[in-house]
Amino acid sequence: MLAHSQGTNINAAKFASNIEVSSVTVARYIDLLVDLLLIRKIQPYTANINKRIVKSP
Question: Which of 26, 37, 41, 49 is deepest in the core (most CB within 10 A)?
Answer without folding.
Answer: 26
